[in-house]
Each structure stands twice: as C-alpha cells, then as structure tokens.
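QUALITY CONTROL LOG
STEP: pairwise intake check
CHECKER ROLE: data steward
CRITERIA: each record must contain a sequence immediately followed by its structure tokens, with no blank fields

ENTRY 1 OF 2
RESULT FIELD BELOW
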Amino acid sequence: MKQAPRERPDARGLRIAVLRASFNGAVVDGLLAGAQAALREAGGRSIEVLEVPGAFELPLAARAAARSGRFDGVVALGAVVRGETDHYDHIAREAAAGLSAVARETGVPVGFGVLTCRDMVQAAARSAPGPDNKGAEAARAVVAMVHLLRRLRRRRSRVRRG
C-alpha cells in the first residue's frame, strides 16, 4: 500500500501561500482544510489563502507568489476529474508540468496538491479529513522542502568559505 511520509516538519516562522482552485470547489475545500490543519499542526501561523479560477491557472499564480518574495513556499490545491473528453488530460498535464517548472525556476518549493482522479468518488476520498488527505500531504512536503533547501544552501555557503 502506498503511504506518504508522516513526518511533521516545523512550519513556525514560515510564510506559506496556499492557492485554492475554485473549480470543483467542494473537493478543493477538503484539500484546503487538510493543508491548513497540517500547517497549523506544524506551528504555521503565516498562511495566506489565494483564490485561483482552476487548476490550469495554478502555475501562473504559483509563479507570481513565488517571485513576490513574500512566501517561503507555495501549496497549490485543485481537482481535475476525468470527463467524457480529452480536456482532463490537457489540464492535468499542464498543471503538473507548470507547477514543477515554477519550483525549478524560482527555487521556491511548490506543493502539488492537485488531484487527478477518474471520478468524484476518488476525489472525495483523497480530500476527506484524515491522514490520507492530499492537501495535508502537499503542505507537509512544502515545509519539508523549505527546510531541506535551507540546509543545502547553508552547506554550499560553508564549502565556498572553507
């Protein structure tokens, strides 16, 4: 059985942007609740929730948030549910590729909390309260990556001085 890491990294003092796609709002609300709970459990207090129309728009919003200098990390939340056309494939692919590119381009961690599900039953299960909430997983991943990148940058600066 697949299982995400259960570590609870420390979010105290971190500034986190949480981008909430409005499309499939009921599902995304569950992801948002999970992300906020995970960040609060980790001691996070500086959390700004920003509304985005849909998953396709998440990369541009994430890029703007990351480049603003106001945030240590960005959590992108959305839900793409397969329908009768190829629309799902295009949106899911572009959201994933775009968010990944933002993280690489800016050096700011971006948590991928975008569900890509076959149906609403799967989406509801992954956004429900509890340990398997994908919004919570994305939030914990961002916090962990902020700390990892800080450690790596400190080591790099020590090597240059040494």
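ENTRY 2 OF 2
RESULT FIELD BELOW
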Amino acid sequence: MALALLMAALAACGQPDAANNSAAANPSANNGMSSPQGATGIATFAGGCFWCTEADFDKVPGVISTTPGYIGGTTVNPTYKQVSGGKTGHIEAVQVRFDPAKTSFAKLLAAFWPTIDPLTPNRQFCDNGPQYRSAIFYHDAEQQRQAEASKAELAASGRFAQPIVTEILPATQFYPAEEYHQDYYIKNPIRYAYYRSNCGRDARLAEVWGISR
C-alpha cells in the first residue's frame, strides 16, 4: 500500500498547485506530540532547505499549513545563523498540519520521498552538514511504525542500489524559523527560483527519481 502511494506521488510530481496551503501565521514552538483539539494532524519532515520543503508540501491536497523551523537540537530558541552553522544539533525542517479527513500521514510520506535525495548522508543538494540531512520525525508510535514501514518498503522495492540514509527520529521541541523564512518562496519568488535552480535540487531529483519538475 505504501509503495502504491509513493508511485502515485511520483506520477503527480510536477503537476500544478491547486492552492497555497501556507499558514498566515506561525504556530508557537511545539513538540507536536498531540494534535490541538484533535482537529488537525501534525507531521514534521526535514528535506534540506526548508524553503523548498515548505513549497513542496504546500502543493499536497489536505495540507492546512506549513511552518519552516528547527528541530532535534539542544539550544533553546536557536537562530538561523546558529543552526546553519551546525552548532546546535538542530535540523532545518517543516512542520505540517493537515486535515485527516482529506489526507493521511501515509500520503504525506509518499509525497515526501520524491522531494528529497534519500541516498546522500548529511547533505541535501548544495547544502552540506548534518543540519541539512533528510529525516522524518514521528509524533507517536503509529507515525513511527508507518515511517519505518514506508522506508523499508522503498528499500525493498529495488529502485535504489544504495542504502536509504533518511533518518526516522522522535519529534522534539520544534522552533519556528524567523519570520522572513516563512513563505519565502511566495514573498521572494525570483530569489527562491534562483536558489533552487543553482542548488541543483530539481536536477538531482530527476537523477534519483527519474522525474522532471
């Protein structure tokens, strides 16, 4: 089932965005261990530059909001300068809030894989260092089970000769990034497009997944 969802996600890559799901305001720092009032689901993904991860998830139907931020480190209220310097242990990530009636964690997993390079450790595209490594952060035991099953099924599919190095980690305190990082691709479309192109993200995704964007 998970592999079928992934194949559907691969087929959908590059389709036009039906709506922008970015949040108008950022949620407060949150470890995400429960959905507020049970109204929404929460998931957290790291795929290198969080501008790109946010833009990718905003295209997924059922996503309510996306918040770039930092997770997995030890420094309280880290800044972008600290995290990008690799001194806090945090990873750039995006916290996704979604409508469980319209999508699921399994579908988000399937949408996530084709947006990253799962074969290269401590790097995503032109961004180097453990702060840019790919990871799935689980918020409960069921998310952990689904994430591990999804990774195992992809590894067993025979698509890749190399091992999948994307980590599956427990969600810890999540700190929203500075305001200028929120919706960066919308606020600064030319700069964002220049960065994404020059970072080689889509070229590498085409090489890894056999898709063009």
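INTAKE CHECK: passed for both entries
DESCRIPTIVE NOTE, ENTRY 2: The longest strand covers residues 63-71.
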